[in-house]
Amino acid sequence: MIDKKFIQTVSFCLFVFLCIGCIENDTSSEIELSTNSMESDNVNSIPPAMHTETDSIDKATMIYAYSADDYDIATANNAFAFDMYLNLTKEENLVFSPYSIFTAMAVCYDGAEGATQEEIAYVFNYPLSKPILEKTSKDMMDTINSNDDSYDLKTANALWVRKEYPLNQQFVQNSKKYYEGNVTNIDFRGKPEESRTIINEWVASKTNDKIKYLIPENLITIDTAIIITNAVYFKGKWMNEFDTTNTEKRIFYNSSSSKDGTPVDMMYIQEYFSYGESKNAKIVELPYKGNDLCMYIVLPEENDIGEFEDSFTLSEYTRLKSSMNSQYPVQTWLPKFKIDTKTELPETLQDMGIVDAFGIRANFSEMVPEDYMLWLDDVIHQAFIDVQEKGTEAAAATAIEAVDCAVVPSEKVLEFKADHPFLFIIEDKRTGCILFMGKVEEPEY
To answer: What sequence ranges are listed for the domain Serpin (predicted)?
Structure first.
């Protein structure tokens, strides 16, 4: 009976601070899986839709993976990225981190069982075998956090647990071992405002004080048991910087604005960038110093981003990238822009298929004792992106100055002019994982 259980809620606060373009912005051995472990009661009730192939991934292959070698976590993350993007496109200017949401929910998934686990697995393309997700998540996080001095890219997880609230020790150990999620006990009931301050200060410390108030007032209530936070911070410099003297006011044509367009600060560079195109779009790769990460700009051929994004799937993105080469210099125009997006995701995640986790049918029995009823209450995601010609003043002192490309008159020169709405994707080239994604309809700086 419900009244015989301890009823509590969990909040997710997923924070991403992303500064772009010269900004101011014990692994375990291979896991063996027995056939019996894949035929538990959890698997038997999986909806038939899970066994069908959607877009470029086979969800059944993902969900029923038998080993870490069989599970492609980057593809799982990227497929989720495009699914989430389609659910957030009502925003004119948008930035979000699929990797941040994917990773934070993986921590929660480690404590889920039954239908709750199945629903989360289907939406996020997780394997039903938790050890497989744990190993591949740790490997991915270790790679992402192992960068050099050319840029700064860090991820962090934290679990904030109400004072004296019981968590299963195996869940605590797994969170720390595989997701680096340290647990901090905090007095949510007695000192809600002080608790909010502590968590916000943690976020600020992970983002160089750029975001200070992620947790809003009144989020923490007497029912709050756990808050799970994830932070992703990126600070990088373009491998080929835009010359500030080339930035000038140019017209940007938004499909919903007047036919005359709007003047914006348009950057310009000519360089041998990797470039590709299809009948519907063009794509250019702008690498960051260190060459581990890059930004892809996807420019629809027609000035109708609404129609384009409805059909732009992971398959289309993959095919567009396969057309790329760096044989010719590319004249590139890109507007400067800043975007700050803060979104509450419960309704979106429920629309995508995670229903039980947000109500009394939630099953997080691997996270808390059986006599505690725990469900998700809120999922807050915040992201910020700053795209400009150069970095901070300190970074500029050590920056390698871009060299203009000298082109002989007879050589073919390609043109990439982002003067109407476009998509951007930040990808970790080492793993193939999409870290950040968004679109620009109205450039603001």
So the answer is: 82-443
